[in-house]
Amino acid sequence: MTANTIEKYYDIWALRTLSETILNYDVLHRIWSLETIGIYCKASLVKNILNIHEKPFSIKRGLLEVRSAFGGAGLYKMDSTKNCYYSGANRTCEHVPFHLCMREKNQARIFINPKFIHRRLHNIK
Question: Which sequence spans correspond to the domains of the chain?
């Protein structure tokens, strides 16, 4: 189970949906590859690729199954982590290969729980 936030969803880099076409890619790699083409400004890419996905999930919503997520916190059943390890190799978010391994090797399921609120330090008043 992974967390949600109050102001904006945190850690889009770790998020991979179950969809084949919607946010099942590395948003930072997408920005970097489009930036190298030289026809897009970085601010526009960040706004249109990254920021549009940062809306927090309504706490009225049920669990949302995903391939990978984090949101600032994650709780795992120990059996689901067997033979899976964190790795940030290849400039990839470390949660993604870990969660994909858990799903593949241990038939684990990853969920965002909209009611599991992670408050980042700068949000605490």
Answer: 2-120
